[in-house]
Write a structure and sequence with these properties.
This protein has a domain of 50 residues. The radius of gyration is 13 Å and the shape is flat. Helix 1 links the parallel strand 1 and strand 2. It is built from two helices and two strands. The protein has a two-stranded parallel sheet. The termini are far apart. It has 75 residues and is α+β, with helices and mostly antiparallel strands. InterPro entries: AB_hydrolase_fold.
C-alpha cells in the first residue's frame, strides 16, 4: 500500500462503488483498500453484484451522488 496520495492538497478523491454480492472483486478487498488510502470514498451497495450499476437506475444514482453529493438512500 505504498501509493502516494495524488491529492496532496485534498483537492480531490477517488470513489469506489462496490456491490456486496460481487464475486469477482471481493468486498473485503475494497474495504481494506479504502481504509488504507484516505483519499478514497467507499460506497457499498448491499444487494449489488459485480454489474449492479447497470440495474434499476444505479448509474443515475451514482452520477447524481458524484455531481451533487447526494448519497443514494439504498447505500
Amino acid at each position: 500500500m505504498n501509493i502516494t496520495n495524488p491529492f496532496s492538497q485534498n483537492e480531490g478523491s477517488v470513489d469506489i462503488w462496490q456491490g456486496y454480492e460481487d464475486r469477482l472483486v471481493l468486498v473485503e478487498l475494497q474495504r481494506y483498500i479504502s481504509k488504507k488510502l484516505p483519499w478514497i470514498k467507499y460506497h457499498e451497495v448491499p444487494e449489488g453484484g459485480h454489474m449492479f450499476m447497470l440495474v434499476d437506475g444505479w448509474t443515475d444514482r451514482i452520477i447524481k451522488a458524484l455531481l451533487v453529493g447526494e448519497e443514494p438512500s439504498d447505500v
